[in-house]
Amino acid sequence: MCLGVPVKIVEIEGQDALVESGGLRQKIRLDFVPEAQIGDYVIVHAGFAIALLEKEEALETLELLKDADVIP
Amino acid sequence: MLSLETNKVLESIAKMDVSAHFMEVCGTHTVSIARSGLKKLLPESIKLISGPGCPVCVTSQSDIDYAIALARQPGVIVATFGDMVRVPGTETSLLETKASGGKVEVVYSPLDSLNLAGAHPREQVIFLAVGFETTAPLIARTVQLAKAKGISNLSFLIMHKLIPPAMRQLLQMKEVKLDGFLLPGHVCAVIGSRPFLFLKEEFGLPGVVAGFEAEDILLALFMLAQQKKEGRAEIEIQYRRVVRQEGNPNALKAMEEVFEVGEAEWRGLGIIPHSGLVLRQSFSDFDARNRFPLEIKDSREYPLCGCGEVLRGVLAPQECPLFGTVCTPDSPVGPCMVSSEGSCAAAFHYERET
Amino acid sequence: MKKEIITLAHGSGGKPTQDLIENHILPRFGNPALKQLLDSALLECPGRIAFTSDAFTVRPIFFPGGDIGKLAVSGSVNDLAALAAEPLFLSASFILEEGLEIGELDEVLESMSKTCAETGLALVTGDTKVVEKGAGDKLYIASSAIGIRRQNPDPHPSLISPGDAILITGPVGDHEIAVLQAREHFFRELELESDCAPLWPLIKSLLAAGLKVKAMRDPTRGGLATVLAELARASRLCLQIEESRVPVKSSVLAACEMLGLDPLYLACEGRMVIIVSEESAQEALTILRAHPLGAQAAIIGEVLEKPEGRALLSTRIGGRRILAPLSGEQLPRIC
What is the 3-state secondary structure (H, E, C) of A20-55? Predict the structure, then answer.
């Protein structure tokens, strides 16, 4: 199942990282997001980060909504 | 998460006065839509159809039987994602095999199979590699690690499949009238949105890459409806915070290094060329099909099982004569009713009459 | 120092068995009935009684927030409390696996003793048996309990009527996730304790205020959704709750996200679903919240006339869907 909640990186050690979400910490691999830094948010799938969240894109979505008069 | 005035989005969609059939091809979308009760909030003229988005459900019966046969081999431990365990094969299931002494371990990550192999040096661990493009890079990396570490008691039954060829096959079959697609958010996080350009180029259909919150899906539907209204056919990304047009190059590289593309047999769709992954020659030692060449005879689906038609979007789960009576999550006839991402399971758990 | 362990001799009924009872069980549960060590406990029951039976096979036997002993007592107390019955007498039978450390057994007994004391429950009778190594998983407990019915009419689904309010006494899912983590160690760090607790003191406070409870159920196996589906079927009414009003701890939500679990179906061992009339809802909420066991109580929904026999969820985006009882097991599953 594609689990969609972004989790925050709190520790990095080589290819391993500790991520945090809601007070829970999990060990994952960063092989596919080598550019990730502590404090970044990633999407995790079966023990691997598969994408890094871009703050700009999140804002862009809100812009789209403004254009469609969906939000003020 | 997105904080959104969903009422306003729904109003905007209704105002468009659009008639359309949109298909989603991701089991997580199927479940998210069902859990949120979204379908009933949309105007009557917009219909959502589930397609072949559940990787366990589209696995062929002979592959299921193969996996079960492996679990019955002495000295073998089968490692699998939880979802495969209750799928009914021709004779039995992994769960029943486990109950009668077979070794089946549910794992959360393919990396767990490396640990399992290390912890059981005198047994052969076989990982059941099911999943689309989201999961394939993970297995690719795991295979690379197994090779680098010289792990000799681990192999992989590769059953990975690719979504775009299945969509093309489905469209060529022309069974269902479709006006566009919700595209799978995390498959696209890996492969990007470009592999779906064929929808626009060959079929003149729009596609929008959607995230997994109900709000994401609602927004993506808004974008699809808008395209339909304006007579456009573009591949757009709603899930911008995660998905880029070019996807994830690191994940793609791992897949490229370990796998090559071949034909694959899909439940419901038959054999589709260039739609499955196979281990490259350099990793053939890790192929469970080479290490355990078992002959699977008489693999067959339950004769009245509607999974094939449900997967093609021809039949809605509730329209299958076995739905909810003979076939339930506790006594499933086919994988669609027992997989956590199956359309029938989602319909059974969340969409029976309110 | 070599640790004392349970051996098959402890189950043979001879001196080792006596030793177990007299030196480990008796000192912790001092009451006249038990002390007599008769084949049956001779008791006086001052009223109409409720009687419940349970078996506990939790693994591991120790987990954050509790252990199998606390669980056994809490589970029995809560089954009685759900019928507004004041717990009086407990029977506990222990199936011990050969090789179990007696120190661990002592810890469990200590825990049971404490939990009994919190609720006025007396352990009056029981049994101990020993099975060979491998034939039992450390320790199983089978318990039965008797309580005095304190509300007339007793809470019952037939009392539920349209307009009634549905309350939950606290966040859902803590127990199942805490135990899962203790068993499988999925997560590197998880600060979560089981919600395991005997709820009689909480329910007593409701009754003491003169509130009439229509029906109650504790959401154990199958969780909140299953309990609501059962109550809906039994009452032939519609129980509808709002997704955004169900209290769930953020760590439980995060764990569910990662493991693909649904918090509405997770077992709790210290929560109660309570149905009261619309008029008494606010007062019930205030009373619950004033007690430590109900500090995060919430009104989560209401009873409707139709659709008959269905539990429904009103979703965050304004949709509506059914809450079916749990089918099969929740396994962690992934794409």
Answer: EECCEEEEEECCCCCCCCCCCEEEEECCEEEEECCH
CA distance B99 to chain A (A): 25
C191 vs A23: CB contact, 8 Å cut-off? yes
pLDDT at residue number C331: 45
H or E element, residue B262 = strand B259-266
Which of C250, C257, C260 is the closest to A23 by Cβ? C250
List the pLDDT tens digit at each of the 354 positions of chain B. 445 688 899 999 999 999 999 999 999 999 999 999 999 999 999 999 999 999 999 999 999 999 999 999 999 999 999 889 999 999 999 999 999 999 999 998 999 999 999 999 999 999 999 999 999 999 999 999 999 999 999 999 999 999 999 999 999 999 999 999 999 999 999 999 999 999 999 999 999 999 998 999 999 999 999 999 999 999 999 999 899 999 999 999 999 999 999 999 999 999 999 999 999 999 999 999 999 999 998 999 998 999 999 999 999 999 999 999 999 998 999 999 999 899 999 999 999 875
Q: Which of B6, B35, B341 sits opposite C321 (nearest CB)?
A: B35
Sign of CA dihedral B186, B191, B195, B197: positive
* Identity at C230, one-letter amino acid code: E
**How distant is the Cα of A49 from the closest Cα of chain B, in angstroms?**
10
Whole-angstrom Cα distance, residue B277 to residue B165?
12
Query: Picking from B4-8, B320-324, C103-107, C264-268, which range would have the lowest pLDDT averaged per residue?
Result: B4-8
Statement: residue C212 has pLDDT above 60: yes
Do strands C189-190 and A24-29 pair parallel, antiparallel, or not at all (unpaired)?
A: antiparallel
Distance from the Cα of C317 to chain A's closest Cα (Å) equals 15
Give whole-number Cα distances, B297 to B86, B332, B333, B349, in Å: 21, 22, 20, 34
**Record: contact A61-B26, CB cut-off 8 A:** no
**Alpha carbons B203 and B262: distance in angstroms, whole number:** 24
Res C328 pLDDT > 70: no
Exposed, middle or buried, A59 (CB in 10 Å: 0-12/13-18/19+)?
A: exposed
Is 0.95 surpassed by the pTM of this model?
no
- CB A3 within 8 Å of CB C258: yes
Q: Which residues pair with C129 in a beta bridge?
A: C95
Alpha helices (H) in C66-101, listed in sequence order = 68-81
Between positions 286 and 345 of B, the ones with CB within 8 A of C are 328-330, 338, 340-341
Run of H or E residues at B273: strand B270-279
> Would you state the pLDDT for residue C171?
98
Q: What CA–CA distance (Å, rounded) separates B31 from C312? A: 17
Positions of E strands within chain C: 49-56, 62-63, 66-67, 85-97, 122-131, 139-149, 165-168, 189-190, 215-217, 238-242, 273-276, 298-304, 311-314, 320-322
Q: What DSSP string describes B196-229? A: GHHHHHHH---EEEE-SSHHHHHHHHHHHHHHHH
Q: Which residues of B213-249 are buried (b: 16+ CB within 10 A; e: fewer)?
A: bbbbbbbbbbbbbbbbeeeebbbbbbbbbbbbeebbe
Which other chains touch chain A, taking contact as 3+ CB pairs less than 8 Å apart? Answer: B, C
Helix (H, G, I), strand (E, B) or coil at B129: strand
Looking at every residue in chain C, the average pLDDT score rounds to 93
